[in-house]
Amino acid sequence: MKRRSTSALPRPRAALLGLIFGVIAAPALAAPRVATDVAPVQSLVTQVMAGVAEPSMVIQRGASPHSYSLRPSEAATLENADIVFWVGDELTPWLTGALDNLAGNADSVALLHTDGTLRHGFRDRVLAEAGHDGHEGHEGHEGHEGHEGHEGHEGHDDHEGHDDHEGHAHEGVDPHAWLDPVNAQHWLGVIADTLARHDPANAERYQANADAARDRIDGLIRQVRGELEGVHDEAFIVFHDAYQYYERRFDLNTVGAISLSDARDPGPAHIAEIRDIVAERDVQCVFAEPQFNPAMVDTVLSGTGARTGVLDPLGSEIPADGDYYTTLINQLSERLVTCLSAG
């Protein structure tokens, strides 16, 4: 007697079994394909997506985001994205057109523009009279819902209402907002909510990951406050006016910037003014940046007793993973303390 092959089952029965096993074996819906602009944003998204998928980054490490030409592979990343998380056109004005042309169907989230983000006005320069007292009032801080208890919220009112910097700022928002860890905490929630809308099956995981990351940043804020405790009054110059979010959060004494917030080259008059500030304000350190020509730092330092260090708002040498953001904030504090306390 011949054994009947399962492949010869009557068609209705075979179809039924195929339906049953097809339902059982059906793969879960794919997670959203996510693109990010710069490493700080990629790190925050990576933390929220942990255990689900990994985001891609479209700007090459070590390059200045203020002006950039997309490679074909980076353009393809945008074309394939379901969601794009980016800081905003204040940081990458060229990316607006690329998003329109390449990622028109993607959900584009400009984190700097989200309600609850603490924003500071764009500065032409940092002057000596600014120091601790030159911080203008901030804009756009509607509150971080659900995080009222975070220690990082302390001190928002310390810098409001000062007019010392009046006349030196122009319209616009400084885009380097990730350097305030409280903004990073807020953005984690925005990222989790956006991902959950696209991928409800993993919504609980996204929220749990964001909550854990916010708790880690609470600890980071406390740690960095302690590390910087002894250098609040030490005057320093930065290469690129990219650090005011960090300065304000941790009450630091920046008295000058060689370049502007959007990285435009300074003129000879501004370089001369910075040299005068170094001499008059007993500036301890002048910080270079790896993305820009160090020759201007050498010009400012020439003939002075100031030391030099390196600060990088994008942490170009830090591995681009979930730990990147914590490492970036720690690296800034370590380098500031090393240079400012060496005298």
Automatic annotation (TrEMBL):
Keyword Transmembrane in record: no
Region (Disordered): 132-176
Keywords of the record: Ion transport, Signal, Transport, Zinc, Zinc transport
Any Gene Ontology biological process: zinc ion transport
Biased composition (Basic and acidic residues): 132-174
GO MF assignments: metal ion binding
Source domain of life: Bacteria
Zinc keyword on record: yes
Extent of the signal sequence: 1-30
Family per record: Belongs to the bacterial solute-binding protein 9 family.
PANTHER family membership: HIGH-AFFINITY ZINC UPTAKE SYSTEM PROTEIN ZNUA, HIGH-AFFINITY ZINC UPTAKE SYSTEM PROTEIN ZNUA-RELATED
Protein name listed in UniProt: High-affinity zinc uptake system protein ZnuA
Upper taxonomic lineage: Bacteria, Pseudomonadati, Pseudomonadota, Gammaproteobacteria, Chromatiales
